[in-house]
Design brief:
Blueprint lengths: L1 H13 L3 H32 L8
């Protein structure tokens, strides 16, 4: 994914047509969404592993 993103960015330097810019924007948004989801999954998995302390009330 990283290689594809870099290739698309370099390609936009040469060709600047709207459809190609939209593709690059879509790739960037997709990557951002995947990064967010991966971090959320990791955080959620870590919370499930750690037990909640008992209430002292």
């Amino acid at each position: 994914m990283e290689f594809k993103l870099d290739a698309e960015i370099l390609h936009t330097v040469v060709v600047r047509e709207w459809p190609e810019l939209i593709i690059v924007g879509g790739i960037i948004l997709l990557r951002a969404a995947l990064t967010f989801l991966i971090h959320w999954e990791i955080k959620h998995a870590e919370e499930e592993k750690t037990p909640n302390p008992p209430n002292k009330e």
